[in-house]
């Protein structure tokens, strides 16, 4: 029991149920027979899917909450009408991260994947390793795997989850194996310094029995660990890399000894790191190299991760979740290797604080694109701040152009397109749905 028998019979209400993690948690509780319903600000594919599974969803903030327990996402502000009324009524308010921690505690073995970049993909790769080998597991994914969705229930022995560093959410998890992919500076709205961020990762690691880190990331490598991986450092490495249309094949070595040849079915060199992370965690769990290879090669990708969504004027359109300078650089590099013409970059900044505090890095990476288009900032939970706005960012990039409506974006995208070009739309906000709508 997560909240007591009476509470669970009365049901659980989710504020922000349409989020990718929240909807996954709602489905997990629903699968256990617990009555679940919730609300969200807008309709999306996940709210529609929840209804199909039998979970009622209300769009808007006016619905009254009868349930004694309310789960809320970190994006909900204290003044949110439903949240405020629930608090005033004395209902039990549970943050999303706390619920995730409680669910994880129900499983004998917990594998969690953390990092500023790549954790969704690495978590999905782990899920496919377990699935390909008919292991007993449940996966909670912070994205939508193209085959598994955002949750996969195939047994109760292992719980696989993405571990989010935002507001130290991952500290609710006590893992058997914890993976740290990288520790790049991010979430400056809740980490005042890089030292605070790294300290949070250290606490996350301290909650685990065994830790796997990326040995090519200096901050991650400094965290006490049992096993490490990398292209240049670490016990587990990828060697003899070969690329076919940016899909990489490589030989995995352990302590310099070759174990297995892996051929990935996803685009981008960055996924070699994600595969090595999943390989290392799976090895600690007891899988053989060939069993791991089987799962990695069955993985075909995650929604919004270099996903082709259509075309404009015959030019292919690819969307990616990249919203951090390092992620933008990786996505742009992959696109340039695939594109015979010009990569037409569209970027939507995600939050004013991230854009403001990493402004120089954003300017540097976006300046490498030819005539980049910058769409208005996705504010998420934040108020307007010109210092971190898309307009401010554009003012520092001479060739950049600013747009703030879908119609303006559509007009810009159709300018000067050549048959060999590629449109690359990046961001973690609503740019995905906007560009998909334009691409038709």
Structure description:
- This protein is α/β, with parallel strands linked by helices and 440 residues long.
- The chain folds into three domains: 5-95, NAD(P)-binding Rossmann-like Domain (Rossmann fold, 3-Layer(aba) Sandwich), CATH 3.40.50; 107-298, 3-Layer(aba) Sandwich (UDP-N-acetylmuramoyl-L-alanine:D-glutamate ligase); 307-439, Protein-Tyrosine Phosphatase, Chain A (Alpha-Beta Complex), CATH 3.90.190.20.
- Helix content is 34%, strand content 26%.
- The chain has 16 helices and 21 strands.
- The protein has helices at 5-10, 20-31, 45-52, 81-88, 96-104, 119-132, 194-206, 218-221, 270-285, 289-298, 325-338, 352-357, 359-366, 390-395, 406-413, 431-439, and strands at 12-15, 36-40, 57-59, 69-72, 92-95, 109-114, 137-145, 149-154, 158-162, 177-180, 210-214, 227-230, 236-244, 247-254, 257-267, 307-312, 315-320, 343-347, 373-375, 401-403, 422-426.
- The strands form three sheets. It has a ten-stranded mixed beta sheet, with helices on both faces. It has a six-stranded mixed beta sheet with strand order 16-17-21-18-19-20, sandwiched between helices. Strands 3-2-1-4-5 form a five-stranded parallel beta sheet, sandwiched between helices.
- α6 (119-132) packs across α9 (270-285).
- The radius of gyration is 22 Å and the shape is globular.
- The N and C termini lie far apart (46 Å).
- The mean pLDDT is 95.
């Amino acid at each position: 029991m997560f909240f007591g028998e009476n509470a669970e019979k009365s049901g659980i209400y989710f504020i922000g149920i349409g989020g990718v993690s929240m909807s996954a948690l709602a489905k997990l509780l629903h699968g256990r027979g617990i009555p679940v319903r919730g609300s969200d600000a807008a309709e999306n594919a996940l709210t529609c899917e929840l209804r199909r599974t039998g979970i009622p969803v209300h769009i808007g903030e006016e619905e009254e909450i009868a349930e004694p327990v309310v789960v809320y996402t970190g994006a909900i502000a204290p003044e949110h009408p439903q949240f405020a009324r629930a608090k005033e009524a004395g209902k039990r308010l549970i943050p999303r991260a706390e619920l995730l921690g409680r669910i994880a505690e129900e499983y004998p073995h917990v594998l969690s994947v953390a990092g500023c970049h790549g954790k969704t993909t690495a978590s999905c790769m782990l899920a496919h390793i377990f699935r390909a080998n008919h292991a007993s597991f449940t996966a909670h994914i912070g994205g939508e795997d193209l085959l598994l969705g955002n949750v996969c229930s195939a047994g109760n022995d292992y719980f696989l989850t993405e571990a989010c560093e935002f507001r130290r959410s991952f500290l609710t998890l006590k893992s058997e194996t914890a993976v740290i992919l990288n520790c790049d500076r991010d979430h400056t709205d809740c980490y005042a310094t890089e030292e605070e961020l790294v300290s949070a990762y250290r606490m996350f690691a301290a909650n685990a029995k065994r830790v796997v880190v990326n040995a090519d990331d200096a901050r991650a490598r400094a965290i006490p660990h049992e096993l490490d991986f990398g292209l240049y450092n670490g016990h587990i490495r990828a060697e003899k890399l070969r690329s076919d249309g940016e899909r990489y094949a490589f030989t995995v070595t352990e302590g310099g000894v070759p174990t297995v040849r892996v051929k990935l079915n996803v685009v981008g060199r960055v996924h070699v790191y994600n595969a090595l992370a999943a390989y290392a965690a799976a090895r600690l769990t007891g899988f053989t190299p060939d069993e791991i290879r089987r799962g990695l090669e069955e993985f075909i990708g995650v929604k919004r991760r270099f996903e082709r969504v259509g075309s404009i004027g015959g030019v292919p359109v690819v969307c990616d979740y990249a919203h951090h300078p390092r992620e933008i650089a990786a996505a742009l590099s992959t696109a340039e290797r695939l594109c015979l013409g010009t990569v037409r970059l569209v970027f939507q900044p995600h939050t004013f604080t991230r854009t403001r505090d990493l402004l120089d890095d954003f300017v540097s990476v976006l300046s490498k694109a030819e005539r980049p288009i910058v769409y208005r900032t996705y504010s998420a939970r934040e108020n307007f701040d010109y210092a971190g706005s898309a307009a401010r960012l554009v003012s520092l990039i001479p060739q950049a152009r600013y747009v703030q409506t879908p119609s303006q974006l559509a007009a810009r995208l159709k300018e000067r397109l050549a048959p060999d070009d590629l449109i690359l739309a990046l961001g973690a906000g609503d740019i995905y749905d906007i560009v998909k709508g334009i691409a038709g």
